[in-house]
Amino acid sequence: MHVVIEFIKYEAPEILENPNITAPPQLFATINITCTVSGDPPPTIIWYKDDMELPGEQGQTLTLEEVSLESRGRYYCVAVNSDPNNNMGPRLVTSNETILNIDGMKLLNTKFSSLSVRVVENYRVCKSVESPYDLCYH
What is the dihedral of CA 67, 71, 72, 75, to 10 degrees? Predict the structure, then answer.
């Protein structure tokens, strides 16, 4: 009797590069956050914001379109795969967090034609060289 045992190659998931914002975030722009992982079989990547799973967001790049103040937060990814050689269940690894913060001075430079202004969150009306009424980050 001849028995052949075949092991399938397996590499546990590994975070090669923690989440990284590819460009400085600008209000209403599209930004990408990348999380580079490895593993065999290729891991499934699950994205989280402020400890809440982002449904439907998988893959090494998370794309945020029309970034707003609500986009601010802590983002991280979790990589998951399973070892086909045993029944120990899925293996997962969690990345470090990246903080998405929006710099109001760079993102919002709206000029007003009148002084009738509603202050929104951490923004206030301030004077500048270019215009007497610019919206500035406070």
Answer: -110
Question: Going from the N-terminus, what domains does the chain have, and what CATH number goes with each?
Answer: 1-102 (2.60.40.10), 103-138 (no CATH)
The span from the CA of 132 to the CA of 112, in Å, is: 9
User: Which of 77-81, 93-97, 100-104, 116-120 shows the lowest mean pLDDT across its residues?
Assistant: 116-120
Quote the pTM value. 0.67
For 60-76, b/e burial (b = at least 16 CB within 10 A) is bebebeebeeebeeebb
- Give whole-number Cα distances, 24 to 21, 32, 41, 94, 127, in Å: 7, 10, 33, 24, 25
